[in-house]
Amino acid sequence: MLTRREILGAVGGLALTLANPGPGRAQDSARVSGPAFVGADGSPLKLKGINLGNWLVPEGYFFGFNENANSPRDIEQVAAELLGPDDAKAFWDAYRDVFVAREDIALIARLGFNLVRVPLDHRLFLVDAAQGPVDGPGFALLDRLIAWCRAEGIFVVPDLHCAPGGQTGTNIDNSFAYPFLLKSERSQARAQLFWERMAERYAGEPAILGFDLLNEPVANFLSYDVPDLQSRLTALYGRLAQAVRRHDANRILFMTDRAALRGLRDPNVALTFHLYWTPDVGENWISEPLKFREETGLPLWMGESGENTSQWVAQFRGLLERHDIGWCFWPYKKLFDERAVVTADPPKSWPTIAAYARGPRPSMWAVLKSRPNLDVAASIWSELLAGLQLSRCVLNTGFVDALGLDAGGAAHQLVRKVR
């Protein structure tokens, strides 16, 4: 009988001109040109992207868990309780290898996407050591992805989804129910260091379209002291922009905060916005971004949307394109659900894992009482890894068609089944 290890092993101020611009010339990379994005040759870029959600930032819904295991650290805790710390680490290493592999990027390119947005967790990129923060394993994963995307002619937008301290106060940023990033100098300094390291490492990399500095900061559906936090956010955006510009003069910087964008005298910035779960699809839902573009002359990018019917997705995509707004829908790969480019089937026994994760585990005794057999659990997690391989996945043509892309025969060769 295989052991659990053998099973897992198988598979500052704003109104300023940013100083110290760093290397490179504007014409060497994609850039902002008035209210539009253009390529290195000056030709217009019509951005058609997909988010690699749940790759480096796992969320509870993907695994069929609930609020008891919703954030990355909660999910990691479930894996550690069922696999042990060593085998849990082996699982996550293997998960990151199979969730986005070379063939996944090939499929994305064949379907007609020209961009991937990559949610990132700062913990994978800044690891504490005796001499201070050092580069973590996330850089090697991102290096590999960028090389694949460069070979396929696809742009990459790294997105700081989980910032130090948390920028939203929800499960998606792995925070503690408050955007402590905006109140913590240490967290802000660490976020600044994150972007300095990113900018220095990838200065001059043509495959990177730009940096999405903070994902959905200050969630507007929660009851915070919003005016104070918005003011702090504006200042932080200026600080993060300066951090990038010390090493990279030309990278497009995507921000959600309009005050920050108005204050920065920088030729290569753009407004990004997200939209989910509206009851209909009409111009009223994008009127504020359109007004901002008209007033400032800066381009717009819709960085996340989806999780809806194919009809809704098609209508919203059409609305964006009629207004010359590039888009990036969510997500590329899911379990259980057809609202994605591809779907992976979970193991038949996955409900055993999901039931454990959903249940209360307030103490060690609760874990001991409710935890399934460890060898059985390890086998199920291993089956999950095997099922996430693209050759085992289903291509959802309804979702792809809703995005106006081609789900034709060349893509079919990479997946198990077409739906």
Give the key terms.
16% strand, disordered N terminus, 419 residues, globular, 16 strands, 16 helices, 41% helix, alpha/beta, 4-stranded mixed beta sheet
Describe the structure.
The protein is α/β, with parallel strands linked by helices. Helix content is 41%, strand content 16%. It contains 16 helices and 16 strands. The protein has helices spanning 4-10, 60-63, 72-83, 85-99, 102-111, 138-152, 185-202, 226-245, 258-263, 287-296, 310-322, 350-358, 364-370, 374-388, 397-402, 409-412, and strands at residues 31-33, 36-38, 48-51, 115-121, 126-127, 134-135, 155-162, 210-212, 252-255, 269-276, 300-306, 326-329, 333-335, 342-344, 394-395, 417-418. The chain has an 8-stranded parallel β-sheet with strand order 7-4-3-12-11-10-9-8. Strand 1 (31-33) and strand 2 (36-38) form a beta hairpin. Helix 1 packs parallel to helix 4 (85-99). It starts with a helix and ends with a strand. Mean pLDDT is 91; it is low at 1-27.
Number of helices: 16
- Shape from CA axes? globular
The percent range for strand residues is 15-25%
Biggest sheet strand line-up:
7-4-3-12-11-10-9-8
Distance between the termini: 37 Å
Flag low-confidence runs. 1-27
Extended strand count: 16
Class computed from helices, strands and strand pairing: alpha/beta
Roughly how much helix do the residues carry, as a percent range? Answer: 40-55%
Radius of gyration from CA coordinates = 21 Å
Sheet having the most strands: 8 strands, parallel
Average per-residue pLDDT, rounded, comes to 91
